[in-house]
Amino acid sequence: MSITGDGGLHGLTVGQLTVLQVRFSDWRSVDLIQLELPSDEQHRAALYKNANAKKRFVICRWVLRQALRELGDPGWNKSFLLQNGKPYLEAGLYFSISHTTDWAVVGVCNGYPIGVDIEYIKPRSNLIGLAEQVFSKAEMAHLRRLDPAEQLGFFYSVWTQKEAIVKAVAGSIYRSYNLTVVPLVSQWRHVTIGNVTMWVQNVQAPDGHRVALAVQRSRGMVKR
Questions:
Q1: Which of 42, 104, 117, 129 could make a disulfide contact with 163, Cβ separation 3.0–4.6 Å?
Q2: pLDDT tens digit string along 121-178?
Q3: Would you state the pLDDT for residue 33?
Q4: CATH code, domain carrying 19
Q5: What pTM did the predictor assign?
Q6: What is the C-alpha to C-alpha distance for residues 127 and 200, in angstroms, rounded to an integer?
Q7: Which residues have a Cβ under 8 Å from the Cβ of 51 and sit 6 or more positions away?
Q8: Domain range holding 138?
């Protein structure tokens, strides 16, 4: 996928799935691309008081719209519909957006709900206490067995996978304590949340970050 602009895009495409990583600081201005957004999104952008927040919103939405257009969605510039709290377009393309201060991840999937999450890895003063709110018993046991130097990276790997999963099903991270994603693997694996099967994995991320991707679909979605 080749989306042009003055910013940098880093992409991954696998079958019906496209994931793009965008660095906000690579973009000088968003004035022109804002004009390419649908009118409702232009209006939302105009309401932002904070220039950086506005820049993040415009870039994310523009990249998303260009990805949808290149995937052949005839409604790429139309307003989104909602299904169980998840936005999608009439042609059946689902999407998810996540960002930190300087990086964003935009994921699009044809026919199946998707969730993405990116987190900047920063020290946590109460790492164990925070983990206890969202980690399962198995995940907490694994976390406590690790050396302190390894705990932070493991925490963010699990956190991003869980965030991606609950975004794909329009849930809350704090309802994922009974969902177990360990042992973590570098390839796709499937987990079950309620009556839904999810494929999830951590994918290549910018330095100092973790990125995870989850797609709601049948077991035959991807090859290991």
A1: 117
A2: 999 989 999 999 989 888 999 999 999 999 999 999 999 998 998 888 876 554 555 6
A3: 94
A4: 3.90.470.20
A5: 0.83
A6: 23
A7: none
A8: 117-216
CA distance linking residue 57 with residue 103, whole number of Å = 12
Long-range contacts of 52-59 (CB under 8 A, 24+ apart): 52/24, 54/30, 55/24, 55/27, 55/30, 56/24, 56/99, 56/104, 58/30, 58/33, 58/34, 59/7, 59/22, 59/24, 59/27, 59/30, 59/33, 59/104
Same-domain status, 125 and 195 = yes
DSSP 10: E
Considering the domain boundaries, does residue 47 fall inside one? yes
Identify the pLDDT of residue 66.
Answer: 84
Place of tokens 């957004």: 37
Tokens representing 210? 């973790």
Counting residues of the chain whose pLDDT is more than 90, the rounded percentage is 45
Phi, psi of 163 (to 5 degrees): -60, -45
**Per-residue tokens: 158:** 């699990």
The verdict on 53 and 89 lying in the same domain is yes
Total domains present in the chain? 2
Residues whose CB is less than 8 angstroms from the CB of residue 148 and which lie 6 or more positions away in sequence, other chains included: none
Asked if the structure places residue 146 within a domain, the reply is: yes
